[in-house]
């Protein structure tokens, strides 16, 4: 059986995935990419590779992990290996400028933004927007470096002072401030380019947004261990029956940029217009949201053993019966409907433990060696 290769620089984030793979007896290899060498003339190992690199790696002392990962991904892709969230996805992860170009290509609105290098250039960018602005780092994570300035003097004082935080890549973004009716943003999560759930995040206390990441476990408002914490329920709210604006355009962005797993953050202004301002090519997992979304969307959806009847939407990809042909599906036969045809009911997620269905999607993907011969090198998973 081919191995699952996990590319990352933060073991805390990958621990739940690894635990799930071990529980299923699935072979994997942990690639901790903080430093190392890449023999470009060597043949990469076989298997499927999941890129879990983060733009915030430098905050954990891994400044050049994204650059090392980019080298590894190019090496893998050149050799025809299957990569989830490949090199193009990494480009978006580590550069908001690249993100905004992708959004513009898909016709998705985003706040007016000026990229600046140098302190005086940051101040000059105010004049181009002429109004309240937000500064943020081009390469960042968790909302690091995000500040709101309502006048030019406040911006100058910050940029000229000792509290100024330069971006790790030297590029600071000066962005139009979108005034929302309420101090909140919405993050929508996608797995396999399919919408999973949405979370409303209260930004009253600032912009370091982390509705799930393990790095914020000690934060009493963190959503990762929801429990009965009233602070959590106040700051983060799962949106039931939510329909993301610009859904097809967001999925277009993922298709055009080789992204399989992503979270999009957007804000809605007073006129009701939605602006996407961040693309995260990693899931911000939340167990409570997973349980609700999985229960609402995936249980009891029928499909036929050798041909879909049209309304099956497996979490792995929206062709349950076809995925069963590849050994990916987990449909269980439940009963025979009228007409004499055997119907299978997708019960995949009903009794599964937590960790989003990233792990189900990935572990299901590799549950049989047939997948490696059945899928093309650039499989649209």
CATH architecture descriptor name of the largest domain: 2-Layer Sandwich
Mean pLDDT: 76
Annotation, overall tally of beta strands: 16
Anisotropy-based shape: globular
| Number of H/I helices | 12
C-alpha end-to-end distance = 19 Å
Strand content: 15-25%
* Residues in helix, %: 25-40%
Molecular structure report:
There is one protein chain. The chain has 12 helices and 16 strands. It has helices spanning 11-23, 65-78, 87-93, 96-105, 119-129, 152-160, 230-235, 247-256, 287-297, 320-325, 358-365, 370-374; strands at 3-8, 28-32, 47-51, 82-84, 113-116, 133-137, 147-149, 172-176, 184-191, 194-202, 236-238, 261-268, 274-280, 301-304, 332-336, 342-346. The strands form 4 sheets. The chain has a 5-stranded antiparallel beta sheet with strand order 11-10-9-12-13. Strands 2-1-3-4 form a 4-stranded parallel beta sheet, sandwiched between helices. The radius of gyration is 22 Å and the shape is globular. Mean pLDDT is 76; it is low at 211-232, 298-361 and 363-381.
Q: What keywords describe this structure?
A:
single chain, 381 residues, alpha+beta, Rossmann fold, Dna Ligase, domain 1, D-amino Acid Aminotransferase, Chain A, domain 1, 4 domains, 5-stranded antiparallel sheet, 4-stranded parallel sheet, 12 helices, 29% helix, globular, disordered C terminus
């Amino acid at each position: 059986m081919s191995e699952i290769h996990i590319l990352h620089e933060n073991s805390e984030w990958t621990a739940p995935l690894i635990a799930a793979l071990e529980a299923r007896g699935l072979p994997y290899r942990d690639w901790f990419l903080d430093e190392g060498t890449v023999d470009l003339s060597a043949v990469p190992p076989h298997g499927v590779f999941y890129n879990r690199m983060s733009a915030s790696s430098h905050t954990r002392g891994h400044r050049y992990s994204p650059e090392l990962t980019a080298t590894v991904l190019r090496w893998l892709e050149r050799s025809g290996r299957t990569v989830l969230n490949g090199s193009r996805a990494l480009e978006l992860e580590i550069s908001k400028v690249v993100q905004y170009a992708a959004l513009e290509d898909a016709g998705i609105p985003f706040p007016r933004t000026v990229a600046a290098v140098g302190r005086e250039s940051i101040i000059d960018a105010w004049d181009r927007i002429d109004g309240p602005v937000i500064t943020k780092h081009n390469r960042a994570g968790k909302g690091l470096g995000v500040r709101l300035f309502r006048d030019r003097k406040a911006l100058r004082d910050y940029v000229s002072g000792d509290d100024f935080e330069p971006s790790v890549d030297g590029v600071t973004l000066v962005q139009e401030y979108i005034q929302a009716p309420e101090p909140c943003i919405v993050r929508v999560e996608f797995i396999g380019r399919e919408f999973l759930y949405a979370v409303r995040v209260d930004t009253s206390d600032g912009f370091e947004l982390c509705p799930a990441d393990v790095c914020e476990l000690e934060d009493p408002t963190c959503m990762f261990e929801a429990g009965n914490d009233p602070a959590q329920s106040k700051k983060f709210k799962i949106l039931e029956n939510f329909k993301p604006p610009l859904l097809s355009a967001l999925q277009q962005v993922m298709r055009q940029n080789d992204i399989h797993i992503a979270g999009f953050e957007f804000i809605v202004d007073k006129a009701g217009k939605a602006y996407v301002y961040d693309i995260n090519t990693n899931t911000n997992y939340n167990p409570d949201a997973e349980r609700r979304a999985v229960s609402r969307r995936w249980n009891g959806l029928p499909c036929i053993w050798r041909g879909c009847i049209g309304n099956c939407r497996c979490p792995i990809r929206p062709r349950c019966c076809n995925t069963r042909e590849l050994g990916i599906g987990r449909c269980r036969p439940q009963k025979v409907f009228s007409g004499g045809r055997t119907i299978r009911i997708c019960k995949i997620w009903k009794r599964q433990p937590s960790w989003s269905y990233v792990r189900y999607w990935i572990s299901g993907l590799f549950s049989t060696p047939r997948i490696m011969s059945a899928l093309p090198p650039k499989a649209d998973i």
